[in-house]
Amino acid sequence: MTHSEQPTVLVVDDDVDCAQSLCDLLGELGCCVQARHDGRSAVEAAVVLRPALMIVDLALGSEDGCRLMNTIRDLLPPGDRPVMVCLTGRADPRTELECLQQGFDLFLAKPLITEALHEVLAVAASRRRWRPQANLAVRSRPLPPPG
């Protein structure tokens, strides 16, 4: 991927409204975004799209976001593995530590604010050699709370 391309981001959240809000915000920040709402379609999309970044809800209905993240990592060759971000409404230090120990690269709490997303994009860009679009006109706004 060259520095000028838009990064591909895959958002995985069973809360359709939350996923759409996050996709809209990422689109405003210069990302090419797709959403999936279950583990099976997320795995299929990850294999096809090879996203630079995946933001995965920890609790996908009856599915486990950590298990999904590890399944995707196991399927993709090391050079194609996305930066994996856990997104959850359970924003306590113990949950964050468990998610990072399970293999997530980064942790985000709901409701998400734009500044936190900027930080995630900067970290992902440094690891995947793409440059986030500087769209500082986007206002800071929280995403809707988890359903």
Major sheet: size, sense and barrel closure?
5 strands, parallel
Strand content: 15-25%
| Domains, number | 1
Helical content (DSSP H or I, runs of 4+)? 40-55%
Q: Secondary-structure element order, as H and E?
A: EHEHEEEHEHEH
Could you state the CATH homologous superfamily?
Response regulator
Characterize the overall form.
globular
Mean pLDDT: 84
- Examine the secondary-structure arrangement and name the CATH architecture: 3-Layer(aba) Sandwich
Low-confidence stretches: 133-147
Give the number of DSSP strands: 7
Taking the alpha carbons of the first and last residues, their distance comes to 36 Å
Rg: 14 Å
Judged by helices, strands and strand pairing, the structural class is alpha/beta
Set down the secondary structure blueprint.
Elements: E1 8-12, H1 16-28, E2 32-36, H2 39-49, E3 53-57, E4 59-60, E5 63-64, H3 65-75, E6 83-88, H4 93-102, E7 106-109, H5 114-128
Parallel strand pairs: 1-2, 1-3, 3-6, 6-7
Antiparallel strand pairs: 4-5
Describe it.
The modification 4-aspartylphosphate is found at residue 57. This is Response regulator. InterPro entries: Bact_response_regulator, CheY-like_superfamily, Sig_transdc_resp-reg_receiver. Residues 8-125 form the Response regulatory domain. With 147 residues, the chain is of the alpha/beta class. It has one domain: Rossmann fold (3-Layer(aba) Sandwich), CATH 3.40.50. It is built from 5 helices and 7 strands. It has helices at residues 16-28, 39-49, 65-75, 93-102, 114-128; strands spanning 8-12, 32-36, 53-57, 59-60, 63-64, 83-88, 106-109. The chain has a 5-stranded parallel sheet with strand order 2-1-3-6-7, sandwiched between helices. Strands 4-5 form a two-stranded antiparallel sheet. Strand 4 (59-60) and strand 5 form a beta hairpin. Helix 2 (39-49) runs parallel beside helix 3. The chain is globular and about 35 Å long. The model is unreliable at 133-147 (pLDDT under 50).
